[in-house]
Amino acid sequence: MLPRMVEIKEIIEEGRDAKTFILDAPWLKGATPGQFLMVWIPEIGERPMSLSSSTSITVKRVGRVTSRLHDMKEGDFIGIRGPYGRGFEISDGKSLLIAGGMGSAPLAFLSERVNKFTALIGARTKDDLVLLRKFSKGELLIATEDGSEGRKGFVTDLIDEIEMKVYDAIYACGPDGMLREILDRAKELNILHKLQISVERYFKCGIGVCGSCVLDPSGVRVCKEGPIFRGEEVFDSEIGRYRRDASGRRVKYGNSKRI
Amino acid sequence: MLEVEVSGLKFENPLILASGVLGMSASSMISAVKFGAGGVVTKSIGVRAREGHPMPCVVELPFGLINAMGLPNPGCEEFKEEIKKFKENCDAPIIASIFGGDPSEVREVARTLRDADGFEINVSCPHSDVTKKLEDDEEMIGDIVREVKKAVDSPVWVKLSPNVSSIVEIGLAAQEAGADAVVAINTLRAMIIDVETGVPILGNRIGGLSGSCIKPVAVRCIYELYETLEIPIIGVGGVTSWKDAVEMMLAGASAIEIGTAVMKDVRIFEKIKAGLKEYLTKKNLKIEELVGRAHRV
Ligand SMILES: Cc1cc2nc3c(=O)[nH]c(=O)nc-3n(C[C@H](O)[C@H](O)[C@H](O)COP(=O)(O)OP(=O)(O)OC[C@H]3O[C@@H](n4cnc5c(N)ncnc54)[C@H](O)[C@@H]3O)c2cc1C
Ligand SMILES: Cc1cc2nc3c(=O)[nH]c(=O)nc-3n(C[C@H](O)[C@H](O)[C@H](O)COP(=O)(O)O)c2cc1C
Ligand code: FES
Fold first, then answer.
1. What is the mean pLDDT of residues A55-80?
2. Using CA atoms in the order B106, B109, B115, B120, what is the torsion angle rounded to 10 degrees?
3. Which residue of A has its CA nearest to B29?
4. CATH class of B4-54+71-192+212-295
5. DSSP state, A158?
6. What global pTM score does this model have?
7. Is A215's CB within 8 Å of B23's CB?
8. Strand A4-14 relative to strand A77-84: parallel, antiparallel, unpaired?
9. Is A191 on the interface with B (CB under 8 A)?
10. How do residues B37-92 score in pLDDT, each as one tens digit?
11. A219–B30: do the CB atoms touch at under 8 Å?
């Protein structure tokens, strides 16, 4: 599909560096949580963004394209293609949602579709917490690295405060280090099959043709067969060990659990 | 029943993964073989890492794609590992697609990647500053082929551009310089503009058209090349079904590469294999009897 120009209907500030953009794109109503859009700002660039509800994206300012997006106003237009990729499989039972940093975006969308849930949300500081309002209808535990809100530490530290085993489904999105720790813990408890994670890689085409986002060693395309994967599909993968940059070079993942 | 031999390389079947589609890592090329490919061509690799063109780098149309990836690649030193990993896990031939601005650069890439079973020299990517100026330069293409032939023992293929006044002249130049086969065709230079904003969509503005819409152009190029060349031709461009593969072989292709169609369905190789087998049985033909059969009439 070609990028389709849509109006930004509303912009909501999310803490210090993030904004939610509500788009006038009614055809996205059928999207599944976990799916993503390719967002195009003409003459500036195109980037992948998860849906944070069926008609919004929530974007952190990090570089050229996201900064330009942050400068836009309500009534401006951006191009989108999608929704693309495989979304979360939604469970009727009790769900555990674990988000680090901008990982809250797809899980906020998911929270609209699950019945009973506990959400573990982590960020660097209080000002980096986004979309908390979406998680308030469930049980909500917060961690910040500097202790400015909730428990001081990483979101994965919050796992010790709950019992992972009792949940029927576990959904996680965040940096690779966090995902690796959750994969390891789920493996230990023999519940990898209950885990679904949202994976980020360098996307170029977003439609499964260029090979930029492929995971070792299975060769699956994150943009096409993912970005949501079952725990057992990716336990043995490169996640948390290395990833590929825009040129395809392998970049080692640091030991830091930083989010 | 589908085995073919092209320039001394044996393929379990004639369907090969085309360059630039998935071939960035050993894992994705191994998965293509698992899904039935008889061999693989890697992403085009140069001497040093390149990020490629700014995004958007792909636009999807109802009948194909326009891409302007801009030859992103990790550089030949790092890519050596991927070839090694592929060879440890897979028996199918792996062809390294290589490019460079001048003969010595291309030779260096070939030397570094000498573990590959063969080489495909890309002188035909229509939106890269490096290869665009080569596509029509018979003399330069000849020089590159000679340099690479001197540097490696394995077969050397040359991938041709359709964006030239005579693809046959370029094919002849490659043959005279010692190429073991030609590959036809790379993408057609193309462009798309968003009418709402008046802005060209691709980051590089100009890209290359691939997919089912270019098949008739590819078939014509293969047909013309077969009339004049003595070396084998590998057909590529818009193959999405077994019928397309048969058509290209009838035009003169000894093997087929598949790119864009892999996007929708990695299992495409298995599907085309099944169709090919059925066709050969029905027509009571051997696979090599298909090659160039349309020239008899
Ligand atoms: C499936 C998926 C969903 C995402 N969802 C969100 C989201 O909901 N909210 C959000 O704020 N961010 C999300 N991201 C990350 C977002 O795409 C990057 O922050 C953005 O691309 C940065 O672009 P830039 O031009 O501002 O920065 P740049 O200066 O270009 O890059 C800064 C960093 O961003 C990352 N990045 C840049 N380009 C890409 C790309 N094409 N693909 C992947 N990563 C890239 C790289 O790590 C890079 O080092 C998602 C990424 C993926 C793959
Ligand atoms: C996303 C994409 C990337 C490509 N990258 C390369 C490349 O690096 N080197 C090359 O020789 N051809 C490249 N090609 C061209 C293909 O190998 C092939 O020649 C062309 O797409 C026509 O075949 P198809 O219609 O089956 O895709 C690329 C094509 C696409 C769609
Ligand atoms: S981003 Fe191109 S294959 Fe996934």
1. 97
2. -40
3. A219
4. alpha beta
5. G
6. 0.95
7. no
8. antiparallel
9. no
10. 999 999 999 999 999 999 999 999 999 999 999 999 999 999 999 999 999 999 99
11. yes
